[in-house]
Design a protein that fits this description.
Layout: H1 5-9, H2 13-66, H3 68-93, H4 98-163, H5 181-187, H6 189-209, H7 212-220, H8 224-266, H9 271-281, H10 287-303, H11 307-333, H12 341-376, H13 381-386
Helix pairs in contact: 3-4, 3-6, 3-8, 3-12, 4-6, 7-8, 8-9, 8-11, 8-12, 9-10, 10-11
Amino acid sequence: MNENPGEHSGENPGEHASETSGSTVAAEKDQQLDGLVALFSDAVNGQRSLAITGIFVMLLFYTLYFAAPVLIPITLALLLNMLLAPGVVLLTRLRIPQALAAALVVLSAVMMIIGALYVLSGPAQEWLQKAPASFYKVEQKLRELKKPIEDIKKATEQIEEATQLNKLPQAQEVTIQRASLTDLLLSGTPQIVATTGIVTILVYFLLASGDTFLRKLVTVIPTLRDKKRAVEIVRNIQEDISFYLLTITLTNLGLGLLVSAALGFIGVPNPMLWGAMVAILNFAPYIGAITNLIILTIVGMLTFDSLTQALLIPGVFAIITVLISHAILPAVLGRRLLLSPVAIFIAIMLWGWLWGVLGALLAVPLLASFKIICERVEPLRPIAEFLTP
């Protein structure tokens, strides 16, 4: 007699199938639950990472803002070290000791700055003394342009007086006497002298130390392959930053000399003063150019009675600036070292807010140095691409 296996074992096939189906459904539910837990965990970790990043950025800005008296001299010294390093390298190739070469380069730079300040101090002092009368002269020339607006304003005030029923007693006007420009400059002189001394000493030590920090970095790195790679990256970064800073500095000096020569040819008094101003402010592109344009327009109105002659001065400056910034500079630097105008504008606003006028002047060199570092470090190359025009 044939027996049913299910009856012999005491099991029902339907019940076995239902149990298998139930276990499959339970497994699928467990997988879905695990997926939800993993998704929730990733979301929490992402929010935590975003929060940590936000806190880090806030602390970074807080430190940059409140530690400005310490960080500004250090930053300026590092940039000047990159700018003057090629001179030290050239002297060391002539078998001059590193410390002596650094001293000669720093002393030469200080003497050139002192000489420039001595030459420009006379015209600057003369301009400061004539500034009140000069601005009054500009106001007189602009009065004809302001006359229609003043007539409208006067008519509006007459209408308000005619329609006002209960005129309140006029409040007493209080005038606060402000410090003059000379007093402001003299009050900041001790801080300027102290900062200049700190920067000079720090630049000398950086130049005299040479490759000391690089050698220590190589000592810390374990493998020979990584040592060679680190030396290559650091060398390339130093060369690119030095080349960029030297190119920008020489370009701005050339711009200042050309503007000074053009203004002297036109007949503007103290052309070297305005050329130096153009060279310094041009370290902050766009904003510096706009500032130069406004100041040179005022200088033109002070120098010439004719509006056409007055506008000739900012016109010459604009032509020279456009030629240098759009023809000469891109050809010398190449696309790799050029910066996006949007990035430049944001950097100037950010560093100007953090460190004032000096921060605005240092913004572009700092941005260019950051971009060069990003280009040489593999994980940071996408950032460099965003900073490229």
